[in-house]
Specification:
Length: 254
């Protein structure tokens, strides 16, 4: 194959599956080409240079041949293996869920720099023992939906438009309501000011500043409830890793 068919993309392995006796089919989320499928010849062989670098969580520069319908990986310059996630039982499940959600939202043929940055910073946060994994999950879910233009209205009342006395969340309106409007609706539940502020911060902050705060248990509970309900409306695919993760999270939160 001609050298002009060789390109280098920066990205992360989001899924892998065996093909035949020795090869692997890799799905990469890349900054330059979005989500692409690539084949790693001989990657199942223990002595293959691609064996360790074509696993989920691996982030780096991938040198690939560009074919008609897919790519073939020639070389990988690994920047981070995120090995700590693989050895952390809970962290691994969170990581697999984050990869699956990135796979859902990732698109082919577009610049996915923002999504790659979010995914990378989220994995780094998972290695930070000072931030609860469940808070990281809520932040990641809300931000990835925000990036794709789907997020709850958290700044003004979805009924009258006021930005004062916000005290309720409306399921049907997918956003907050003021005290007067919320008290008149049957689908609202009260939320505290800290929950509103935290969710506003996640929606509007740059990715580099997402994982620098913590919240009280009751605030995390409200954030999780809102994001779970919102996500269930706008993600039309059953995410396999989510059921296991929610079961683990419920056990830890009580």
């Amino acid at each position: 194959m001609a050298d002009n068919n060789i390109i280098t993309v920066t990205g992360m392995v989001i899924s892998t599956m065996p093909v035949g006796e020795t090869d692997r089919r890799i799905v990469l989320l890349t900054k330059e080409r979005g989500k692409i499928t690539a084949f790693a010849k001989g990657a199942k062989k223990p002595n293959s240079p691609l064996s360790a670098s074509c696993q989920p969580f691996v982030f780096g520069e991938f040198e690939v041949y560009e074919g008609r319908t897919s790519y073939n990986i020639r070389n990988v310059n690994v920047k981070n293996y995120f090995r700590e996630l693989v050895t952390d039982f809970y962290g691994a499940y969170y990581g697999f869920y984050f990869l699956e959600l990135a796979d859902y939202y990732g698109r082919e043929g577009i610049d996915e720099s923002v999504l790659i940055t979010l995914l990378y910073q989220t994995f780094r946060a998972l290695l930070n023992e000072n931030i609860p994994n469940e808070l990281i999950k809520v932040i990641y879910e809300l931000k990835i939906m925000t990036i794709n233009g789907e997020y709850p209205e958290m700044t003004v009342c979805t009924e009258c438009g006021t930005d004062t006395d916000i005290a309720y969340y409306s399921d049907n309106n997918n956003g907050v309501c003021c005290k007067i409007c919320g008290s008149r609706r049957g689908d609202c539940f009260t939320i505290c000011d800290s929950t509103i502020y935290a969710m506003q911060y996640i929606i509007f902050s740059p990715i580099g500043k997402l994982y620098n705060f913590n919240v009280k248990r009751e605030v995390l509970y409200e954030m999780r409830m809102i994001v779970n309900r919102f996500r269930s409306k706008y993600i039309d695919k059953k995410l396999k890793s989510l059921e296991i993760l929610e079961s683990l999270s419920n056990e830890k939160l009580g």
